[in-house]
Amino acid sequence: GFTPEQWETFNEVGLIQIENALSDDEISAYLAAIDRATQADPTYKPGEYFGLQNFVERDPVLAGLIDHPRHVGFAYDLYGEQLKLQLSELFLRTPSANTYNKWHPDGARALPYGVFSPELPLQIKVGYWLTDLPQPKMGNFVYYPGSHRQQYFAADDTHETVPGEEILCVRKGTLTILHGSIWHRVEPNQSQVTRKNLFLAYCPSWITSADRLLSDPEWIKTLNREQRIIMRSYQH
User: Fold this and answer.
1) Average pLDDT of the chain to the nearest whole number
2) Residues facing 201 on adjacent strands
3) What is the distance between the alpha carbons of residues 89 and 48, in angstroms, rounded to a whole number?
C-alpha cells in the first residue's frame, strides 16, 4: 500500500507514479494476454481504436490482476474488507487524431462524492502502462493536479489545454495510482505507436459495479477465494 510520502502526494496531487513496477517479462505476458482477449472479441478490428471492459473475465493472466499484490494494497488501504473491483478496462489507442476524449472525472456523479465520503475517494484507479510514451501527442493521459478536491472545472466537456495541466509521459512498466475524482482528458495519438494499457478501478462494496451486473458463475469458480470476494458477484 501507500508509503507516507505516497499518501501525501496522492492527497495533494491526485496521482502517483511508480516506475519500473513491471519487468520486461511481465510486460510481455500482459501484452500477450491483451492480444488474446482482443482478437477473441468479435467487435475488435485490427488497426482501429479498441476498448474492452471487464477484461478480467477474458484471460487467466488478466484475472490474476484482481488481487495482485503489486497494487491491491493501495486499494485495501482505503477500503479494507469492503474492497471491490468496480471496473477493469483495457485500451488500444491506435494512431489517430480522433481517438481522444474531453475533460471529465471518472464515475457516475448524481451528487458530489463528498456527500457520501467527505475524506476518502469513492474510486481509486490503478493504471498499467505497457508501451513507452516518452512525449506528448501519443494518446497520453492528461490531468490537472489537485483537481480531485474541486467539484467544478472550467474546461469541463472541452478538450482545451489548461495552464497547469500535466501530460503523463511514462515508460512502459510504470504503475499509476489515480484518485477517481481527478479531472483528466486523453490526447490524440499522432505517433506511430499504439498505446496499450490496463485500468482497474476499486471502490467500497456498496457501490454499483461499472462494467457488469454479475460475473459468469462458471468463471467465478476458477478464481481463488480472495478474488471471488473482491468481484462481489452476489445474487442478493
Assistant:
1) 94
2) 87, 125
3) 17
pLDDT at 63 over 90: yes
- In tens, the pLDDT along 153-205 reads 999 989 999 999 999 999 999 999 999 999 999 999 999 999 999 999 999 99
- 133, 140 Cβ separation under 8 angstroms: yes
Between the alpha carbon of residue 108 and those of residues 63, 66, 73, 113, 155, the distances in Å are 25, 22, 24, 9, 18
Cell of 36: 488474446
pLDDT for 56 beyond 90? yes
Give me the mean pLDDT over the 117-146 stretch. Answer: 94
For the chain, the DSSP string reads ---HHHHHHHHHHSEEEETT-S-HHHHHHHHHHHHHHHHTSTT--TTS-EEEESGGGT-HHHHTTTT-TTTHHHHHHHHGGGEEEEEEEEEEE-SBTT--EEEE-SS--SS-GGGT-SSS-S-EEEEEE-S---SSSBS-EEE-TTGGG-S--TTTT-----TT-EE----TTEEEEEETT--EEE--B-SSS-EEEEEEEEEETTSPPSS-SS--HHHHTTS-HHHHHHHT----
Q: Per-residue pLDDT tens for 1-53?
A: 999 999 999 999 999 999 999 999 999 999 999 999 999 999 999 999 999 99
Q: Which of 140, 141, 143, 142 is nearest to 193 (CA)?
A: 140
